[in-house]
């Protein structure tokens, strides 16, 4: 999903700037976007590329990865002498450095034993599970590169972030929260999804749905047209064997079907259907419940948002012939205007759970430069009768609700906050408040987490402020993007509270937020526009 601000002018501006930078000059020289350096004829990430770690041509050793430009042991291995070993399965270092198993025994889970347990395979004198062992992924000795994990015998990243400003993708390993190298991928990456070892990337600049292997993010495996030239693909939903792409400019829901792998290793998609949701509706996201899609309609300023402030219900009982059933209006809600004046629901995201469909409401005043004029809110839609109930998330903790995801029986809402942008420097945030996360249980906010950049003084003092964006969930961990400085914060949901794992504001944090998308020095911003968990 996408959109740092409801105002589409920002997305269009960044798209034009990104395209111009990536096109470069006609001179025959390599031009790299921010965060990548020239090594020979390629753009590489010296901070994360194990083949060029810290400097061009400096390769990490076998079993090592590159983090912050320094080679080190791969996650799951430890230093024993001058080598990186897996204490869980190394028969010469079984459970501890130098603890060798007796002749004839094997090492499994850090203990010496006579043979492998059920479900484990023998690789030499080691017992491993080929389905999830990154050192023996799918076959003995098949080592996953950098910080990739083993997914059902295939090496992939666990989480992938899209950098809109730089046109890059970057993989993250869940649990360790370590990043792989940044890879260049198009010029207008806007929305992500993942399916069967492939990351789907909607490129607004070229109006295509590109596919990259989830373990080789810089490689294009397949591309499919998104039809209209001026597209804004805001969301992708995978519902095998179909993929649905939502276009907020052309107001369409496009249906693609998998019909066998392509020659490049892609999914083999073909467009099989489409439905138009109506002029000036500006659809934003897709939530599926049964055979019905719930699609927030933001509306457009040119039509005074008269076709927005609603949720479209689309039947996909026949996926190749999607049908607009009706719309659920959000205009009758008490939006708790701060001054009793103008504010609109302007829905932005949605999620379907057992209790109903929850829609994130930005609650903005379009007449006042899209500033919040009420607290961030959720609307719960009852699928049985279409009834709508509003949930106040609290103005102190949440303004401009922008995304919502389920974590167990709770909901996590991302709040973009009230950001004041310096348009002279390329929409860099110079002030922001009430941006972060809110945890909701039984339709009530129960906890909050404020995004903090870990510095003070604002951009004029070298402090890039954080502005919350999209969410991805892995287990109880929530990954939230920063659309101003390109970071990814990691927060766990525990016992009805937020516990910071990667951030800058609490003592229990294991480290700073991840610098996934480098800030472009020429514009002072970096939009980590979307994030997806890879199954």
Automatic annotation (TrEMBL):
Pfam families reported for this sequence: Stig1
InterPro entries to which the protein is assigned, alphabetical: Stig-like
Source species, domain of life: Bacteria
Q: What range does the record give for the signal peptide?
A: 1-19
In terms of PROSITE patterns, this protein maps to:
PROKAR_LIPOPROTEIN
List keywords of the entry alphabetically. Signal
**NCBIfam families referenced in this protein's UniProt entry, alphabetically:** C_rich_MXAN6577 (NF041328)
**Protein name (Swiss-Prot/TrEMBL):** 4Fe-4S ferredoxin
């Amino acid at each position: 999903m996408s959109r740092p601000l409801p105002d589409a002018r920002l997305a269009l501006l960044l798209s034009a700037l990104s395209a111009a930078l990536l096109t470069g000059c006609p001179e025959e020289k390599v031009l790299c976007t921010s965060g990548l350096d020239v090594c020979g004829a390629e753009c590489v990430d010296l901070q994360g590329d194990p083949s060029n770690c810290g400097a061009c041509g400096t390769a990490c050793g076998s079993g090592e990865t590159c983090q912050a430009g320094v080679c080190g042991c791969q996650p799951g291995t430890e230093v024993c002498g001058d080598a990186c070993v897996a204490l869980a399965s190394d028969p010469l270092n079984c459970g501890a450095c130098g603890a060798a198993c007796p002749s004839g025994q094997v090492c499994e889970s850090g203990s010496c034993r006579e043979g492998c347990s059920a479900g484990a395979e023998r690789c030499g004198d080691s017992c491993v599970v080929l389905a999830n062992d990154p050192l023996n992924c799918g076959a003995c000795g098949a080592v996953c590169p950098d910080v990739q994990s083993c997914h059902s015998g295939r090496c992939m990243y666990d989480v992938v972030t899209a950098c809109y400003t730089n046109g890059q993708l970057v993989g993250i390993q869940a649990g360790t929260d370590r990043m792989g190298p940044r890879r260049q991928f198009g010029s207008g990456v806007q929305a992500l999804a993942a399916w069967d070892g492939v990351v789907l990337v909607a490129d607004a600049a070229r109006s295509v749905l590109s596919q990259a292997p989830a373990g080789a993010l810089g490689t294009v495996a397949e591309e499919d047209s998104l039809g209209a030239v001026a597209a804004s693909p805001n969301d992708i939903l995978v519902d095998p064997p179909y993929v649905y792409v939502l276009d907020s400019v052309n107001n369409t829901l496009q249906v693609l079907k998998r019909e066998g792998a392509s020659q490049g290793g892609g999914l083999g998609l073909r467009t099989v259907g489409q439905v138009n949701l109506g002029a000036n509706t500006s659809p934003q996201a897709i939530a599926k419940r049964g055979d019905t899609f719930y699609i927030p309609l933001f509306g457009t300023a040119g039509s005074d948002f008269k076709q927005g402030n609603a949720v479209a219900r689309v039947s996909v009982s026949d996926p190749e012939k999607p049908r607009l059933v009706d719309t659920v209006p959000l205009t009758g809600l008490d939006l708790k205007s701060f001054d009793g004046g103008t504010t609109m629901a302007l829905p932005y995201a949605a999620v379907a759970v057992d209790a109903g469909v929850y829609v994130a409401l930005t609650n903005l005043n379009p007449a006042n430069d899209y500033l919040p004029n009420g607290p961030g809110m959720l609307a719960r839609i009852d699928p049985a009768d279409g009834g709508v109930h509003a949930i106040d998330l609290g103005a102190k903790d949440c303004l401009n609700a922008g995304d919502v995801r389920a974590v167990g029986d709770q909901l996590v809402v991302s709040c973009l906050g009230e950001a004041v942008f310096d348009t002279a420097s390329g929409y860099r945030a110079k002030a922001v408040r009430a941006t972060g996360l809110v945890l909701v249980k039984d339709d009530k906010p129960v906890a909050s987490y404020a995004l903090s950049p870990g510095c003070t003084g604002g951009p004029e003092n070298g402090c890039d402020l954080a502005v919350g964006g999209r969410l991805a969930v892995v287990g109880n961990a929530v990954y939230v993007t920063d659309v101003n400085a390109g970071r990814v914060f990691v927060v766990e949901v525990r016992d009805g509270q937020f516990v910071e794992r990667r951030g800058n504001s609490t003592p229990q944090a294991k480290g700073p937020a991840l610098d996934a998308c480098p800030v472009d020095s020429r514009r002072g911003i970096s939009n980590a526009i979307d994030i997806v968990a890879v199954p």
